[in-house]
Specification:
By secondary structure, the chain is α+β, with helices and mostly antiparallel strands. The chain folds into two domains: 4-149, Arc Repressor Mutant, subunit A, CATH 1.10.10; 154-304, Trna Endonuclease, Chain: A, domain 1. Helix content is 37%, strand content 17%. The protein contains eleven helices and eleven strands. The chain has helices at residues 4-17, 27-36, 55-66, 75-88, 114-121, 128-136, 142-153, 171-187, 208-213, 251-260, 277-283; strands at 92-94, 110-112, 155-160, 163-167, 192-197, 203-206, 227-231, 236-242, 267-274, 292-295, 302-304. The strands form three sheets. The protein has a seven-stranded mixed β-sheet, with helices on both faces. A two-stranded antiparallel sheet has the order 1-2. β8, α10 and β9 form a beta-alpha-beta unit. It starts with a helix and ends in a 14-residue tail after the last strand.
């Protein structure tokens, strides 16, 4: 095997030029591309082919031709993080020999799309830039497609009159929106949003100055709650956990938040929010005492877990 780095580096560069996101500009995706072209180290790009290949044969080919060993449990990574994107971008075809093959069939195969093969066979020639431009003309690149799709799927959250933020799509963000738009007006009217986490961007919204003014300074390593609201009238900080798949404010989380917000000049109120009572039921035994629970499908109700007051801060040690 000769000149191994050249083909790998070139394949990664080609994936970038074709508009693939960074997550598909890596060695794994480059090897998958080379396998689909049967482009072993001694061949030139003009000798690229388009065999039908399944995931396991691709992994075997990478080992035999480039010495890259993939563990059997990485099959899904190759399929979900490379081949899925190749098909979505039109670079590869899925089951072209039998389009009605079952999705989970062990006989599933991929093949380089004919126009892409013709383009890549001409890589390195004097006409490559023009041919690449012609190939991309009318074909939206995958990176741009993902960006547009993600933008369309973002969840808008109104945090004040005329002011909206956007969070990554998903059940977690939907519950955060309900906390801000449904819980806050009912149980902390006039409150100001200080922080809203985001599964895609950790700091979905963060009024760092307001929190600092209340005596709390955190960095990106702090274990922030999902939502922080400042009830300015009562000078409370409501620390709200949005629970769709992870745990509520239990004893351990209560201690973590107490430590993180120990310097707060505002009273601390701990709240766990659930999308519905079915999810809440799975965590009832874990919820810490002297905290509140709110359920989005019954937004006008609040459940208080013992303690001497309903919805209010407690002095440390009481």
């Amino acid at each position: 095997m000769t000149d191994t780095p050249t083909h790998l580096d070139t394949a990664q560069q080609i994936l970038a030029e074709l508009g693939f996101p960074r997550a598909q500009q890596n060695e794994r995706s480059a090897l998958c591309l080379l396998a689909l072209l049967n482009l072993s180290p001694e061949k030139t790009w003009a000798q690229a082919e388009n065999p039908l290949m399944g995931i396991t044969p691709i992994m075997d080919w990478a080992r035999e031709q480039y010495g890259k060993v993939y563990a059997p449990n990485t099959r899904e990574t190759l399929r979900r993080q490379t081949m899925h994107q190749f098909v979505a971008a039109g670079l590869a075809l899925y089951n072209p020999d039998q389009p009605d093959r079952a999705v989970n069939s062990p006989k599933a195969v991929y093949q380089i799309e004919p126009a892409a093969l013709a383009l890549l066979q001409n890589y390195g020639g004097t006409e490559w830039p023009a041919e690449l431009a012609a190939y991309l003309d009318g074909r939206q690149t995958l990176a741009a497609q993902y960006a547009r799709t993600r933008q369309q799927q973002l969840i808008p959250v109104q945090i004040a009159a005329g002011q909206t933020i956007a969070l990554s799509p998903g059940a977690h963000s939907e519950l955060i929106r309900a906390i801000v738009e449904e819980f806050a007006p009912r149980f902390a009217p006039g409150s100001v949003l200080v922080y809203a986490g985001d599964t895609g961007e950790k700091w979905g919204y963060f009024d760092r100055e307001r929190l600092s003014g209340l005596g709390v300074t955190v960095d990106t390593h702090g274990k922030m709650p999902d939502v922080i609201l400042h009830d300015t009238g009562r000078n409370w900080l409501l620390l709200v956990e949005s629970v769709t798949s992870h745990g509520p404010v239990d004893g351990k989380r209560h201690a973590e938040l107490s430590g993180l917000f120990a310097g707060s000049s505002a009273g601390l109120v701990y709240v766990t929010a659930f999308p519905n009572r079915a999810v809440m039921g799975r965590y009832l035994a874990d919820i810490a005492w002297e905290t509140e629970v709110w359920v989005a499908d019954a937004p006008s109700h609040l459940i208080h877990f013992n303690g001497e007051r309903f919805l209010g801060p407690y002095e440390e040690g009481t």
